[in-house]
Design brief:
single chain; 58 residues; mainly alpha; 3 helices; signal
Length: 58
Amino acid sequence: MKKLITILSLGMFSLGFSQSVYYNDYQRSITDVNWQTVAANLLLSNQQKAQLFELNNQ
């Protein structure tokens, strides 16, 4: 029974850690984008730019 609990504990820790790494990679990919360049390339209006920047600052 102790072995089963140990294995389950390690599995949950591994899953939590891998999800954390995945989320950090995702968050970094969003913050690394130069959103001003994206907005300029898409020819967004001032209101659309403000919405884009507000969304990415959350």
